[in-house]
Amino acid sequence: MTSDRLDSLTSWHADWKGLRVAVLGLSVTGFSVADTLAELGADVLVVTESADEEYARLLPVIGARLWTGALESVPADLVDFSPDVVIASPGFAPQHPVVRWALEHDIALWGDVELAWRVRDKVVRPDGTPADWLLITGTNGKTTTTRLAATMLAAGGLRAAPVGNIGTPVLDAVRDPGGFDALVVELSSHQLWYLGLQSGPDPVSPHAAVCLNLADDHLEWHGSFQAYRDAKAHVYDNTRVACVYNKADAATRAMVEDADVVEGARAVGFDLGVPGPSDLGVVDGILVDRAFLDDRRTSALELTTVAELADLGLSAPHIAANILAAAALARSLEVAPADIREALRSFRLDPHRIEVVARHRGVTWVDDSKATNPHAAASSLTAYPGAVWVVGGLLKGVDISDLVADRGSRAKAAIVIGLDRAEVVAAFSRHAPGVPVFEVDAVQTEDVMARVVELAAEIARDGDVVLLAPAAASFDQFASYADRGRRFAAAVRERIGTGAEGDDAAAADPTEGDDAG
Q1: pTM
Q2: Where do the H-state alpha helices sit in 333-373?
Q3: What is the percent of the chain where pLDDT is above 90?
Q4: Taking CA atoms, which of 234, 282, 381, 509 is between 20 and 30 Å from 435?
Q5: 332 near 208, Cβ under 8 Å?
Q6: CB distance 384 to 407 below 8 Å
Q7: How far apart are CA 338 and CA 300, in angstroms?
Q8: d(CA 354, CA 496)
Q9: 414-449 burial string, b = 16+ CB within 10 Å, else e?
Q10: 335: closest CA among 160, 80, 74, 135?
Q11: What is the per-residue pLDDT for 497?
C-alpha cells in the first residue's frame, strides 16, 4: 500500500474498497470502526482477546472477519493478513505487542477519531460542509464539560452531539443520517496519543479545543507523566478559531503556546478570577465573557451568576470552571449569552459526581465515585473539607502522597478500600499522622461498601459529611466507578432505611459536582 493511496482517503466518497484494515479490539469503539469500514467496502479483520457475544454475531453479518486469542505476541493470522492500516481501540497502549509491531513495520496506525475525521463528510450541512468539531480533554471534568457544551449549543439552535470518550463513538455520529452542525468530542489521553501519529494531508482540525487541566493519571498506559502531557497537548493541533486553556493551570497555557495551529486561531483563557481581554471569568459574582465580543477591552457579556448556579446545584468551584470552559467553546460558535444561561437552567449533572445520596441524623452521605484520580478527589475534598473520606482502589501508578498531605490532613477520618490500600495507609502515616485511618479488608465485592458504611456511621456525627472520593480506579473490586457508587449508595440506604430524610436531596444540593471527566 502506497502512502499516496492512504493520503487520498480523506472523504467518505473516496475509494476505500479492498483496503485491508486490522481493527484492534471489539468493544463499542471497535465495532463502530469495523461497521464503518465494512460499509465503505474495506477488507476488515477484527483482532481481539475476547469478543462481546452480540458484536461477534454481527461481524459476519456486516462482512467482517474475527480473530480471537491471546495477544502477548502478534498473531500469525494478522501477519498473513498484511494490513494496509491498523486501527486500534483506545485501550491498546503504545507498548502493546501488536501496536509495536505495526510501528516497527511502518504500517499506518490510526485511532477511531482519525477515521471519523476522514469520513466526516458522509452527511453534510445545507451549505455542503461537514459538522464543526469541538475537542475537549483534561485529567478531570471532560464529561461534564462535554455535556455542558453540547447543551449550550442545542440551546443556541445548533444540532449538536456529545461524542467520543463520553460513550457514543464519533463514527456513529458521523454516520447519523440526520446530520449535525457540531460535534462535541470528548477525548481521552489514549485517543490523543493516536491522533499524535497523524501524517496525512488532512489531519484533524477542530474549530475550537480545550484542555481543562493536567495532573498525574494513566501513567501505566503512557509510561511517564511527560508522555501523558504530550498526548494531552495534541488536542490543540491544527485548531482553527479558539484554543481555550485554564489560566489556573500553567501546563495548559504552555500547551497552547507550543501548539501548531491554523493562522488566526487565538488563545482564550478561563478561570474563577477577574478576566482580562480574551478571557472568561468571574466579576463580583457574575460569570462573564470578555473574549467573544468586539469591545472586549472595555466591556464584558454576562453569562450567569454564582447565585443562580448555587440554586441549580452547580456552584462548586470546579463545576463553575467547567461551565466557563464550555461557554468559551459555545461562544466560539456564536451561541448567545442568553442561550447559555437558559441551557444551564435545564442542565443536570450525571450521577456519582458529588451526588448527595442521603441525609440522616445530621450526616450527609456523598457519592463522588467518579473521582478516579487524586486531582479529581482534591476538588471533592475542597467542596467538603473535614469529611470522613472513603479513599482507595487501583492507583494506576499514581502517587497519592501529595493529595493526602494537601487535603487529607483535614479529613475527620479516612476509610481505606481497594487493592492498593498499603500505599494509601503509608501516605497517611507519613503526611497526615493525626488522621484516624481504618482499613476495609473485605474480599467480596458485595461486602466492601457494607463495611465502609458501618465504619463511617460509627465515626460521623451531626454536621459531618461522609465522602466517597476514592482518588483511584475501581476495577480492582468493582465493575466500574458507577458500580462502586451504586453499591455505596445502596449500602447507605440499607443502613439508614429507604425512607430516611433527604434521600432525594442531591438534586438541590449547591455543592453537587463533577470530578474526573
Answers
A1: 0.83
A2: 337-346
A3: 86
A4: 509
A5: yes
A6: no
A7: 14
A8: 20
A9: bbbbbebbebbbebbeebbeebebbbbeeeeeeebb
A10: 160
A11: 80
Query: What's the whole-number average pLDDT of the chain?
Result: 93
Which DSSP category does 268 fall into?
E
Is-contact 324 279, C-beta < 8 A? no
SS3 label, residue 256:
helix
Instruction: In whole angstroms, give the CA distance from residue 321 to residue 327.
Output: 10
Identify whether the C-beta of residue 474 lies closer than 8 Å to the C-beta of residue 372: yes
Q: Which of 138, 137, 140 is nearest to 353 (CA)?
A: 140
Please, which residues bridge with residue 390 across strands? 415, 468
For the cut 70, the answer to whether the pLDDT of residue 498 exceeds it is no
Measured CA to CA, the distance from residue 326 to residue 332 in angstroms comes to 10
Does 512 score more than 80 pLDDT?
A: no
Residue 241 reports pLDDT greater than 80: yes
Residues 369, 373, 376, 379, CA torsion sign: positive
Place of cell 494496509: 84
Question: Taking a C-beta distance cutoff of 8 angstroms, is the pair 15, 40 a contact?
Answer: no
Instruction: Provide the grid cell at 358.
Output: 442521603
Residue 47's SS3 state is strand
- Buried/exposed code over 233-255 (b: 16+ C-beta within 10 A; e: otherwise): bbbbbbbbbbbbbbbebebbbeb
Furthest-apart CA pair in the chain: how many Å? 70
Cβ-based burial of 9 (10 A; exposed 0-12, middle 13-18, buried ≥19): buried
Residue 361: per-residue pLDDT = 92
450-461: average pLDDT = 97
CB 194 within 8 A of CB 135: no
22 CB burial (10 A radius; 0-12, 13-18, 19+): buried
